[in-house]
Design a protein that fits this description.
With 398 residues, the protein is of the alpha+beta class. It is 26% helix and 25% strand. The protein is built from nine helices and 19 strands. Strand 18 (313-317), helix 7 (330-345) and strand 19 (351-353) form a beta-alpha-beta unit. It is globular.
Length: 398
Amino acid sequence: MATLGRRALASALGLSLMAAGPAVAAQDRWVAAYAFAPSSAAGPAGPASAPNPRDVRGPLGPDVVEGVTLSHVVTVTASGQRLRLRLSNAYGAEPITLGAVTVHLGDMTREVRFNGERSSIMPAGAPLVSDPIDLAVAALDQVKVSIALPQVTRLPTHRWRQTMRGADGVESAPMRLGALLAGIEVESATPPGVIVAFGDSITEGTGALPDGPGGWPERLAARLVEAGRPWAVINAGIGGNRLLHQGSGPSGLERLDADALVPAGARCLILLEGVNDIGRPSRPQYAHQAVSAADLIAGYRQVIRRAHAAGLKAVLATVPPFEGANYFTTEGEAIRQAVNAWLRDQTEADGVVDFDAALRDPVAPSRLQAAFHSGDWLHPSDAGYQAMAEAIPLDACD
């Protein structure tokens, strides 16, 4: 009798929890509306590059700062009545002391608090999520986030275009600085699904003009908003990233969960990654990490399975041409062609986007169209990124 009583109680409790589960989930209205993937210096270091004064993203800023305020202007891709910030010190070896953090939208400014306090300490190796901020935003609004760093701070290795203001109040010209802002989430009564654009510099948007619409993820977000489709898009690209090996940060397979599968509201993954896996081994310091088409295909299959296990759809993209880039080889081109043939024919993913077909020169298909590259035969131009965004069906993740 006692055993039956315990079983009956456990059964009733289980039914109660099952009934409560969806109700609790329905109250969780937060979705990711902006992302910037943290990175690290893991993996072999490439040869140092000379500073490029013509880089449209601005000059490199300092690695270590003190007594400054960094400001970062971003575009959110979902609407909501409140928002909250996600900062990250995921790969930092020391805690980071934060001073005042503020959010600006038009002529409105809001102070940001963390556990009720205006200042906070972000532990080493961890993110920090703010308290909710009463500030309504609309999809495609530009939000400025300013972060004061009163103490000596080593910035993250993944850089983005920011300005820096010192004690004299003078704000610098935009420069590339390590970014502490890893995401913005919005609270919405009708939250959209979130598409995570995952990949390397061609996803991050290298080559796009800094004051323009951005790379293909940002342009896809604008298309979806204009069409009234219930999707937000976040960009989880990291320049130099590879699917299978570290170097320019953790590998794609290593960072997949944190950057693509667990952001709030994530429902679909669009993966574009592989050109660095193919090209980098032509350089001596990466020769021991040569990959085959079979290696990349096995990696793609892992992404598909892990995305499906997390409840996300997986849409894969073909690898665009790269003849003329500084690590192109005929052997690498053969691997790219074999990988793309598999991507087009496989039925394991939920869809395929043919970026190769959208960007290649019809006369020389191992090259990008001249109008579609930004000067290095690897990274698209603004016109190239627009062609990529338009190659993605608006119902690709439905």
